[in-house]
Design brief:
single chain; alpha/beta; Rossmann fold; seven-stranded mixed sheet; 8 helices; 7 strands; 34% helix; 19% strand; tRNA (guanine-N(7)-)-methyltransferase; tRNA (guanine(46)-N7)-methyltransferase activity; tRNA processing; methyltransferase
Length: 235
């Protein structure tokens, strides 16, 4: 499942979806202008040899979340893991603004760095084996067949994720779209760098320990869709 068969070249070169929705409240707009530049990762500069150098507080390891929406999971996980530094990528303006408000309110700016664009250039910038965990939670499922090539999960991006995860680190995925869950599992099982950690049929039906939930998950459950949770370990 590589090359033109999964749209890897097109997916790597383009961002799909909206960048902005409703107008920002003045306070959120101010955070976009003032706080985001202080927390933003500048890809024009070389990545530090150790990602801990990105943060103004000492951290033992670094985790990343791609497409964090409003930041509910990112913020809750950062609060629950005070020795971990977090990198979050989110191109949608309103989601970024909401996350910035929570970061400011909870004084988490020393341990969070942000990328206000698609995750692909950020993944290419990160050093080899520099992350202890990578989250992709409720990504756009692109349900129409002609749009499957736009899905984030594919051989090309699994290669990217595998490169930046250290051995034993985890790729954690959640979705409420059964076809995308099956798609993701097929790609993981076909990739030599990953192993699915499930040992029973219930493992992928229940969220992992410490899961705080997200608004996307709540919406899916209200609408009758069943979420699934996948953990793949870097070999």
């Amino acid at each position: 499942m590589s090359g033109s068969n999964d749209g890897s070249a097109e997916r790597a070169a383009a961002f799909y979806g909206r960048r902005k929705g409703k107008a920002l409240r003045p306070g959120h707009a101010s955070l976009m202008d003032d706080l985001l530049p202080r927390l933003a990762i500048v890809l024009a500069s070389p990545a530090p040899a150790r990602l801990s150098g990105l943060f103004s507080a000492p951290v033992d390891e670094v985790w990343m979340e791609s497409g964090f929406g409003g930041g509910e999971h990112l913020i809750a996980t950062a609060e629950a893991n005070p020795s971990v530094g977090f990198i979050g990528a989110e191109p949608f303006v309103n989601g970024m603004a909401k996350a910035l408000a929570a970061i400011d309110d909870r004084d988490l700016g020393e341990r969070i760095r942000l990328h206000h664009f698609d995750s692909v250039p950020l993944l290419d910038w990160l050093p080899d084996a520099s992350l202890g965990r990578f989250y992709l939670l409720y990504p756009d499922p692109w349900p129409k067949t002609r749009h499957w090539k736009r899905r984030f999960v594919g051989r090309d991006n699994l290669d990217r994720i595998a490169r930046v995860l250290r051995p034993g680190a985890e790729f954690r995925f959640a979705s409420d779209w059964a076809h995308y869950v099956d798609w993701t599992l097929r790609h993981i099982l076909a990739h030599p760098a990953f192993e699915w950690t499930a040992t029973t049929s219930a493992d992928w039906k229940e969220p992992w320990a410490g899961w705080p939930g997200t608004r996307y998950e709540a919406k899916a459950i209200r609408e009758g869709r069943t979420p699934a949770y996948i953990i793949a370990r870097r070999r």
